[in-house]
Fold this sequence. Notes:
The chain is of the alpha+beta class. It is built from 16 helices and 34 strands. The strands form 7 sheets. Strands 21-22-27-28-29-30-31-32 form an 8-stranded parallel β-barrel, surrounded by 6 helices. Strands 2, 3, 6, 7, 8 and 10 form a 6-stranded antiparallel β-sheet that branches.
Amino acid sequence: METRLWKFSVHCQTLPGDVVCLTGSCPQLGLWKADKVVTMTRQSSSDNDTDSDKPDVWSVEVAIPLGSDVYFRYCVCICVDYEHEQRVVIKNWETRLKARKIGCHDIPDQDSIHEFGFINTQESLTQCGWLTNETLVELKLYEKPVQIWKKKHQNKNLFVKITPVDVREAGQPSFCSDMDESIDIAETRFKGKAWPVINAASLDGDDCRFHPQNQFGIEVKENGFVSFQAQMFDMHTVAFLVDIFARSDPEKELRDTLPAEHLGSCYVLPNHFKSTEGRVEQPIVSKGFQPIGQFSATYLIIKPLKDAPCDFAISYAQHWKSNWKRLDVGHRGLGNSYSETQYCSNICENTIASLKDSVAHGADMVEFDVQLSKDLVPVIYHNFELCTVISTKKGGQEVSVTMPVKNLTLEQLQQLKTHHVEELKGGRKNFSEDHEDHEPFPSLERALKEINPHAGFNVEIKWDMEFPDGSRECHNPFEMNLFIDVVLRKVLECGDERKIVFSSFNPDVCTTIRCKQNKYPVLFLTQGVNSKYANYRDPRTWNIPNASKFVEMAEILGINAMAEDLLRDPGQVETVKKRRQVLFCWTDDKNDKDTLNCLKKMDLDGIVYDRMDMNNSKLVKESIFMMDKRFESNEDEDFPVHIHQQTSPTHSSCSCTSGAKENALPSPSSLIVSEFTPASSAEEITPKVDMEEDGENCKSAFISKASALCI
């Protein structure tokens, strides 16, 4: 194969230890694989460059195929030598749907320098990476995480700085060395080292994204929420040094410039992490080794999804098209079949029949709940518990017994006569089970394979939550990583081209799904301020503003909020939209047409409601995704379809010989349409807007007008 030497150069702001890398569609650029990125070299700043704030230039020369289009992206990584091999940790990467392109016969421009994140757009489009080999440990601080007992410190602002300590180097542990060292961690622990990585974020303030800590850490407040995330390969070799600082309360603009008083320290050791989720409490010790307070935090451990089919080719984790507005989403298919309202579904909820009926009546997406059976099969069911009927020893009287769904295998769930727990209060309901489609507990795999592929899925992951008094909705025996890995693998295996969004009320589940893969987006479910449900303990769940800040912190798609809270304060819609986040709502019991019409007038991206057969006012009963697909099948080559590599071809096709336009991507023979294939007018609402060419904007406008005719 003939090649051409091509110089890649990019301006990129980096931190110590960061390396800018290159990935692309040809073997020389690693075929988009995370472990085959091409490392670049930082160039010396120009002697004539007086702008000290200008990002460094990173460059590399690579022999790429001649006569073939080549697509590529830049990424920021940390390359770590671990156990005699180099491992790549992805920190940040370019995520615009259309990758950078070198035409089949383009001539190298040695002076051309790209800007990291900016690909034919005025705004940077990047996102954090996903876990490949590393484990993420998150320490969450809320509900008085730091208690200092001395009265003189009671009214001071407290700050926490957490530093990873390699116990193999420290010698586990005689950690009672001179505590004065902790005043400036950079001078004592891991001086000049970039690994393990640890960043911090807070719900307080306008910027909730994760960032490196400053010298004195991050402020913690009694009713606030602060998160520390650390990445490492072996969590058994890393401890955390926790330093507590205090400041008086000067003016805000002076606060960060004044030195802080070091009050004391404590350690969180590897053996404190007893499970995937939990709480640690440690005494804070002064420099004189006197106990002066207590540090407490909850923790979460996220492990990578091994052999996940994730790469740099394309990501829809934060993508949402501009014409996907006010989508009709069928709640549990055709709706709740056990409510006491007039909109109670006459088809058993969360069954294949219910999902199919909702799609037949024009649902753009269907929402359903996923749990695991005892034999680790993802099944569709809402409640954590079910009822079954047994007979007494004497007289054979029937008695209803409640048990967790998790205690029964798939075969038992599908063969035993079971009832919904709501039937204990309202009496048993009889649904037709003459056909397999009407039977409860269908597998997720069956839904993925049998429901119309143009119907989107909103897959809610059922996981229990903790209440303020410490009690929980249920006790889930599955380890969270195992639970989510099983569901993700099934969706990645059977999702095909379907539009799929994950959602959960549990913010840790949202974080875990986001960290394990880069393919599907995630919505954070929140009940916000309401009159029906009790509050949860986690501050991220308390209201829509907190939920929106968490979405920014976790870099997920957006929020699915309770309609009651949005109707109570419609101004919250603008709060979310200012952060350029997708906003769904769920109606709960408010499924009347007046409520739905009011919600339709809001700037919402999707509405989850019951009885699609009664409440959907579309003239044409089909999903927006079907309309997108139909338009794509009739479009000419001025509107290329975004595609995702199914296999790793040895080279890309030549756009000259194929007659494709400038922005067409490689040959369809080696590629498939990706799960979130846009109609090419892609506007990335979260976190940045990705506008395509003018012709494609016209296409988006056409689809939007056509969509309006169907509403």
